[in-house]
Amino acid sequence: MPKRIVFLFFGFVILASLAYYGFNRLQDSREVVDLWALVPEDAALVVETNNHQALVDHLEETELWQSFSELPLVQRLEEDITYLDSISPGNQRLERFLDQKNILTSVHVDGKTDVAFVFYVPVTTVGEHRFVRTLAESINKSDIFTEEARDYQGVLLTDVTNTRTGRTFTYFTYHNNIILSASPVLVEEIVRRITRGKPTSIAAAFKNRNYLEQPEVYANVFVNYRVLPDLLGLFLKKDIMPQVQYLSTLCQNAMLELKLDKNKIFLNGFSTPEKLKSSLHQVMQPKAPQPLGVKAYMPNRTAIMLHFGIQEIERLRLLQPNNNSTYATTVDSLAHTFSSEAALAYMESSSINQSPEKVAFAHIGQLQNNQRLLNKLNDQVAEARKQKPFTEKYGSYTIQLLNVPELPAQLFGRVFRGFEQSYVVQVDDYLLIAEEMATLRHLLDDIAEENVWGKSVAQKSFLEETLQEANFSLYINSVNAWYILNRYVTDEDRDNLLQNASLIKRFSQTSLQFSMVEGEYYTSMVVRRPEQSNSTGQNTFEAEERFLFDSRLISRPFPIQNAVDRSREIVVQDSALILHNITATGTRGWTDTLNNVLRTDIKQIEYGADKKLRYLFATSNRIHAINNQGQPLDNFPFNLPDSISLQHLVVFDYEKNGDYRLLVDDNLGNLYMYDLQGAAIQGWQPRRMDYRLAAEPQHLRVGGRDVILVLLENGYVYALNRNGETLSGFPINLKSPLTSGAIAKVGADLKRTEITAVTRYGNVLTFNLQGQIVNNEQLLRPSKRALFELVPESSSRRSFIIVRQEQGKVAVFDQDLNELFEKRYVTSASKIVQYFHFGGDNRIYAITERGPQKTYLYDAKGNLISNRTFENDHPVSIQYNETANSYTLFRVFKNELKKLEFSVGE
After folding, report:
1. Structural domains in the chain?
2. Whole-angstrom distance, CA of residue 152 vs CA of residue 136
3. What CA–CA distance (Å, rounded) separates 480 from 301?
4. Could you say which of 460, 634, 653, 714 has the lowest number of CB atoms within 10 Å?
5. Which one-letter DSSP state was computed for residue 234?
6. In sequence order, which residues have a C-beta less than 8 Å from that of residue 491 and are 6 or more positions away?
């Protein structure tokens, strides 16, 4: 009996122990784990989703999925799911298992060289447990996968390898949750985090914010701004990382909601200010956010723009090193005249090797004091350098040179570094600062022509989606910024950038904004695909308009602007030597009967008390100027000797004050210059060259000096001053014939101004205005019959392409000498090649065969638009309508001028 009692007692103890152990295991398995607490603190991003099928369905409806599915990361993920689905038990699919549950995905920098993801997946039902167990058994039995289990600090880790792709992942289970990653290092870090005790959620500050409870929200997105620079540093070059790191110190972390709309991605929520010493937030200490007033002056060709909206702009310069210069006091006083806004904009560039132009903008709160201090600073700098103060009139504006290194940084802080010198101009109540004078001239032209955000239909539509007031904003136009992105992305990631070019350019408009609200930054990010009028995404052509004339047309259609309302018009000449004007509404305008065939393009100038546009052009030995009624201006036409055969006409306005100079050249290489009264200018009666000109002369304004660049067909290049005198270092011999002009990048002085020319045999040479060759590259020349020319963009001449023609083949190269495309044509005769660039990827290439009289139009990718050709025997004219995102083509054939509207799909 006693033995039996003892036996029963021990049996009871054992059963109780087992029951207690089982109960504890059951409790552990049922314990609700905060998945956020498992995420390592070095996560840069964490995404929480709970309805994956609805997300995918919405992406497909809005065409976003088609874009995302092109990403290599998404394609690899889909491939991995397909492999797992192939061995999934029964008819249960992995997608069904993952749907309708809160899943976390954290993004990390793995080993400072790669991006790694961790997935945190709850397993909540008996059926799901059975599915996971059976799937694990199937993996073990499958010849597609191999697995190896190992113990790490008391936790069983399983490493799985896909034998087909070579990709691996590691996973373990914890309290009914699966933690999985392709990085075993991250999985081990999570195990250590668990074994150290109860971890704290990295999103603890946002525990009461769950946007997934709101309608039409597809994810919570946690952002760790302290780690974000490390993530970006994987893709960006080191030389721009200091600026990225400093901007990231505005906030510590954020919780944002993800919403999707048709062709738009929205991220909205709140960010916690960064309280660390020397952070951008501590510098700014913003209060009321400010509106984007600078949009009235921001050009449409802006690629990237940083905007600061705080009342006390001078706070941005805090923590700057002490300025011990002789004019430090003046700079300090000048900084206090600005208020509300400061912005730094990077302009669109046309080459990966070209440093982008940048412009600083600042709102002036004290106009009179600001101008007085600018003049004082100009005088102090000139006195210190023992030079005369430099100013230049450009139209109604005055541009000043303030030769103070890093002046914008001294005024607005470290983000504005990178200005070796500063040219400044006041436009209304804003000060514009650029490193090069040419940059300011182009910007003032954009403002005068209303090519700015405030007037752009596409940009205004985008800005309506963004915050109207903010303390800090970042705007990116990925199409305009394409070459900048290529320039500053690491060499290793440039291939990935190129592979994803279509997606990146498709969603081209991005904004990220922070606006202080009750101690937090309301944060808004918008990624937007611009609205397309051509909803089909295909190349389309609309019905032609035809204008018939009594005589055959002998000129190209010349684009002009209406003298009164600046609307777009066309001028053509017929074989009766009559000029015909066609208005924007398609009606016949003025006519002008000439004595000869047009030899030049039609130039336009503002002239007269009414400041209306006038038209200038030249025939073989006459220079004509007419008004908008076709009537000649006083003193015109200028009659030159009958023996002269003019080739080109250019118009200079040195001071932008209406004091025009007309320069023409003849077929012998003689240059003649006149004012608008017909008086010959000294030194140009004529200025004799050694050979005929390869292209029309160019006027360059460099550091207050006027330079006239002349390229001759024999390969010699001259740089002349106003009096026709040759600059020191010229002429230079390019040692090869020229058949086209050159493109100039105007710098601060003659040495830093660079000219690019292409010889007939494919030498691409860059030289400065001191006559020094700074670069010489030879393009591939397949045979001796291959000939080259430089083709500038049709209107602004700021960018160019290089064309190689050989035995009926035409190859087009970009400014980085990369071949864009090559086409073969019917005849071997020389083709007319034109290049039209309307900003971003709005590029059209027109190639005309003279023999068959056919014109081919190609898009930015070199695809023939609509697989269609056009009867034509002259260069064409193409205009762009930003509102409709469409183009207008004008072409002539026999006695017809034809107008055709077309659009280009993606």
Report:
1. 37-201 (no CATH), 276-508 (no CATH), 539-549+779-906 (no CATH), 689-778 (2.40.10)
2. 19
3. 6
4. 634
5. T
6. none
Strands 155-162 and 168-173: antiparallel
Residue reference for tokens 């389309």: 540
What are 770's two structure tokens? 């001191």
Which burial class, exposed, middle or buried, applies to 649 when counting CB atoms under 10 A from its CB (0-12, 13-18, 19+)?
A: buried
Cβ neighbours for 737, distance < 8 A, ≥ 6 positions apart: 713, 714, 715, 759, 760, 761
Indicate the DSSP class of residue 475: E
Find the distance separating the first CA and the last CA of the chain, reported in whole Å. Answer: 93
**Which DSSP category does 537 fall into?**
-
Rounded Cα distance between 891 and 880, Å, is: 15
pLDDT, tens digit, 9 for 90 and up, residues 717-761: 999 999 999 999 999 999 999 999 999 998 888 999 999 999 999
* Contact indicator for 238, 486 with CB cutoff of 8 Å: no
Phi then psi dihedrals of residue 59, to 5 deg: -60, -40
Report d(CA 399, CA 434) in Å as an integer: 10
Tell me if 586 sits within 8 A of 545, measured CB to CB. yes
Q: Are 755 and 732 in contact (CB under 8 A)?
A: no
The better pLDDT of the pair 336, 3 is held by 336
Sheet of strand 864-871, all strands in order from the earlier edge strand to the far edge: 832-837, 843-849, 854-858, 864-871
Q: Which of 305, 671, 795 is nearest to 512 (CA)?
A: 305
Integer CA distances (angstroms), 494 to 115, 249, 500, 506, in order: 16, 27, 10, 18
CA distance 163 to 141: 13
Mean pLDDT of the chain, nearest integer: 87
pLDDT score recorded for residue 620: 94
Summarize the confidence of residues 406-432 as an average pLDDT.
93
> Can you tell me the distance from the alpha carbon of 264 to that of 280, in angstroms, rounded to the nearest whole number?
29
CA neighbours closer than 13 Å in the CB half-sphere of residue 96: 11
Asked if residue 229 has a cis previous peptide bond (ω within 30° of 0), the answer is no
List, in sequence order, every residue forming a beta bridge with 619; answer none if it has no partner: none
Model confidence, pTM? 0.86
Q: Which residues contact 890 (CB under 8 A, 6 or more apart)?
A: 557, 559, 570, 876, 877, 878, 879, 897, 898, 899, 900
pLDDT single digits (tens) 474-503: 999 999 998 888 888 887 777 777 767 777
Taking phi over 0 as left and psi of -120 to 50 as alpha, with beta for the rest, 348 belongs to beta
What are the distances in angstroms from CA 182 to CA 87, 157, 192, 767? 20, 13, 17, 52
Q: Could you read off the pLDDT of 255-309 as tens digits, one per residue?
A: 999 998 878 889 999 999 999 988 999 999 998 999 999 999 999 999 999 999 9
Residue 905 in tokens: 């799909």
Are 258 and 267 contacting, i.e. CB atoms less than 8 angstroms apart?
A: yes
In sequence order, what are the beta bridge partners of 273? 251
Q: Determine contact, residues 603/561, Cβ cutoff 8 Å.
A: no
Reduce the DSSP state of residue 469 to 3 states and report it. Answer: strand
Q: Which long-range contacts (CB under 8 A, 24 or more apart) does 453-456 make?
A: 453/295, 453/296, 453/298, 453/299, 453/300, 453/302, 454/295, 454/296, 454/297, 454/298, 456/300, 456/882
Residue 128, φ and ψ in degrees, nearest 5? -65, -40
- Under DSSP, the state recorded for 242 is H
Give the 3-state secondary structure of residue 126. helix
Taking alpha carbons only, the member of 662, 699, 658 closest to residue 679 is 662
Cα angle for residues 509, 515, 516 (degrees, 5° grid)? 165
pLDDT, position 547: 93
Work out the pLDDT band at 83, boundaries 50, 70, 90: low
